[in-house]
Design goal:
By secondary structure, the protein is mainly β. Helix content is about 10%, strand content about 40%. It contains one helix and 17 strands. The longest helix is centred in the first third of the chain and has 21 residues.
Length: about 240
């Protein structure tokens, strides 16, 4: 019985020593989102926040990037994009199917991937290759109420906050990183992320509290793809419901 108790402990100690010697120690890093100047309650609506870690030292600079994802879609339905926020690895091709009974014209002209899919009808689809890291704000040139964001990352170390503001990044090797923070209250014109340097080690495995700005109803206010105000709906325009 004594040997049966000791064997798992010995194995655990040996594995721990080997892990440290090879420099491959990994941990799950956690954090929590709070809104600046607002007392947190269980029913508080917290803005969706994306955080990611970019290595800054040789100990982790060979971190393997994620392979491009397959089968991802940003669906146009009920004059909205589903999902509203999508995180993809660099190199991913995203499909933009139109499942509304009228035309859409999806475009993005901000810091991330720039594209204009033109006018396309109900039941059709377009594809976009997100080949560089960045924040892409997605709009429709016909319906100003439609908006979405695609965050394209060159690192597999990221997390999206849940409804209670909790964040969790698994399999983070010990080392130094730049922590990038983006949340859905960030206006397109200010798409640059908030950053800070952090070190992940045996004694430092938390992102702590991440404070973000209070919700801004005008954060997604924007012009059309020509830089002008949107035209009012026209019933006889083919971009509106087809009968």
């Amino acid at each position: 019985m004594l040997k049966q108790r000791q064997l798992p402990i010995c194995v655990m100690v040996l594995l721990s020593c080997l892990t440290r010697l090879t420099g491959q120690a990994v941990v799950t890093v956690r954090g929590r989102v709070e809104v600046e100047g607002v007392h947190h309650t269980r029913h508080q609506q917290l803005p969706t926040t994306v955080v990611w870690l970019a290595p800054v030292d040789s100990a982790v600079d060979n971190l393997k990037a994620q392979d491009p994802a397959a089968g991802l879609r940003l669906v146009q339905k009920n004059k909205s994009f589903e999902p509203h926020i999508l995180v993809v690895p660099v190199g991913t091709v995203v499909e933009f199917p139109n499942r509304d009974p009228f035309f859409h014209n999806v475009f993005s002209y901000f810091e991330g991937k720039r594209f204009d899919l033109g006018l396309y009808e109900a039941g059709s689809s377009r594809m976009v290759h997100f080949d560089r890291a960045g924040i892409s704000y997605i709009f429709c040139n016909i319906h100003p109420e439609m908006s979405a964001v695609i965050v394209t990352l060159a690192t597999p170390l990221y997390a999206i906050s849940n409804a209670s503001g909790q964040l969790s990044i698994p399999n983070v090797p010990f080392g130094r990183y730049t922590l990038h923070i983006w949340n859905e209250n960030t206006a397109p014109e200010a798409a640059l992320t908030t950053t800070r340097d952090i070190t992940i080690s045996e004694n430092a495995q938390s992102l702590g509290v991440i404070t973000v700005a209070a919700p801004d109803a005008g954060a997604m206010a924007h012009k059309n793809k020509y830089g002008r105000n949107y035209d009012p709906p026209a019933p006889d325009n083919p971009a509106y419901p087809q009968h």
